Amino acid sequence: MNVPIFVTLLILMIALPFLDLVDLIRKNNLLPYASLYIVAFGLAFALVFNPQLPGPLQLLHFLFDPIVKYYAQ
């Protein structure tokens, strides 16, 4: 299936937070970073296994399209 992509993505997603870990703890930004990182991690793996899923841009379009249509009138 997509095993090489899955393994590469897993290694990168585990290794990248360690680069910023000291600064995040020092500045008390660990909780927001971790929550955003977990959401991105889940979305990345979901898109590897099912590429037809809508991405984050489609979500933003869905959320803000009614507002744009309302103010465009």
Structure explained in plain terms:
With 73 residues, this protein is mainly α. The chain has one domain. Helices cover 84% and strands 0% of the residues. The protein contains three helices and no strands. The chain has helices at residues 3-26, 30-49, 56-72. Helix 1 (3-26) runs antiparallel to helix 2. It starts with a helix and ends with a helix. The model has no long low-confidence stretch (mean pLDDT 85).
Write the layout of secondary structure elements.
Elements: H1 3-26, H2 30-49, H3 56-72
Helix pairs in contact: 1-2
How many extended strands?
0
N to C succession of SSEs: HHH
> Structural class given helices, strands, pairing?
mainly alpha
- How many separate domains? 1
Assign an overall shape.
flat
How does the major sheet shape up? none
Indicate the proportion of strand residues. Answer: under 5%
Give Rg in angstroms.
17 Å
Mean pLDDT level: 85
Low-confidence stretches: none
Total DSSP helices: 3
Q: N- to C-terminal separation? A: 48 Å
Summarize the amount of helix as a percent range: over 70%
Task: Summarize the entry for a quick read.
With 73 residues, the protein is mostly helical. It is 84% helix and 0% strand.
List keywords for this structure.
73 residues, mainly alpha, 3 helices, 0% strand
